């Protein structure tokens, strides 16, 4: 009997990253959770909590499956930036990140056999100081929509990023080296 391997995420970027390293989930079943940060919750704690809750929610429904869940947070200091769902939020995020370094946290959680194992990955990213015209042009592209912090490193915004310290795939949404290690330990990779 084949092992059921569930990606608990609707993110097309996470699926593409997994396929890039030769891993294809048998099912994609996003967890439906309230992802509101708790009062004064720090970004790494929030990312770890949400990833663990996503994995637990799907593992409870599919106890014989191996479940992979993740949550990515873009943070400016202690502030968790939202997923940009409208132009106003995208502009605010880009304006805040312009000319500064920030952190991208991704918590990865693999649940299997009633146990779960997690890893938190941190990448430091520096954005150039952006002009109003650069922000306006990026907004027109629509790439920011639904992206944590209002940008996608794997697209046009890469031109704004002269330096990262850490995992590039983490900023896209799934740190591959760490994810592959967790999946290997669970018997997938």
Short description:
By secondary structure, the protein is α/β, with parallel strands linked by helices.
The chain-level mean pLDDT equals 96
Oligomer: single chain
* Separate helix tally: 6
Q: What structural class results from the helix and strand content?
A: alpha/beta
Helicity, in percent?
A: 25-40%
Number of strands: 7
One letter per element, helices H and strands E, the order comes to EHEHEEHEEHEHH
Describe the biggest sheet?
7 strands, mixed
CA-based shape: elongated
Straight-line N-to-C gap: 17 Å
Q: Tell me the strand percentage band.
A: 15-25%
The rounded Rg comes to 17 Å
- Contiguous low-pLDDT stretches (5 residues minimum) are none
Describe this structure as you would to a colleague.
The structure is a single chain. This protein is α/β, with parallel strands linked by helices. The protein has 6 helices and 7 strands; from the N terminus they run E-H-E-H-E-E-H-E-E-H-E-H-H.
Task: Label this structure with key terms.
189 residues, alpha/beta, 7-stranded mixed β-sheet, elongated
Question: Layout of helices and strands, plus pairs?
Answer:
Blueprint: E1 5-7, H1 12-20, E2 27-28, H2 43-61, E3 66-76, E4 79-80, H3 87-97, E5 101-112, E6 115-126, H4 132-141, E7 163-165, H5 168-172, H6 176-186
């Amino acid at each position: 009997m084949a092992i059921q391997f569930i990606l608990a995420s609707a993110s097309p970027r996470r699926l593409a990253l997994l396929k890039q390293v030769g891993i294809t989930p048998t099912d994609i079943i996003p967890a439906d959770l309230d992802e509101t940060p708790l009062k004064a919750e720090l970004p790494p704690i929030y990312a770890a909590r949400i990833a663990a809750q996503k994995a637990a929610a799907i593992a409870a429904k599919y106890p014989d499956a191996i479940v992979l869940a993740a949550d990515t947070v873009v943070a400016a200091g202690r502030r968790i930036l939202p997923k940009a769902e409208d132009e106003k939020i995208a502009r605010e995020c880009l304006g805040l990140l312009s000319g500064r370094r920030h952190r991208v946290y991704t918590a990865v959680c693999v649940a299997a056999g009633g146990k779960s194992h997690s890893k938190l990955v941190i990448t430091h990213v520096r954005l150039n100081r952006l002009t109003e015209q650069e922000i306006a042009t990026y907004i027109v592209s629509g790439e920011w929509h639904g992206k944590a912090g209002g940008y996608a490193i794997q697209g046009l915004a890469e031109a704004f990023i002269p330096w990262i310290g850490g995992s590039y795939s983490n900023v896209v949404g799934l740190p591959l080296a760490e994810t592959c290690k967790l999946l290997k330990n669970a018997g997938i990779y």
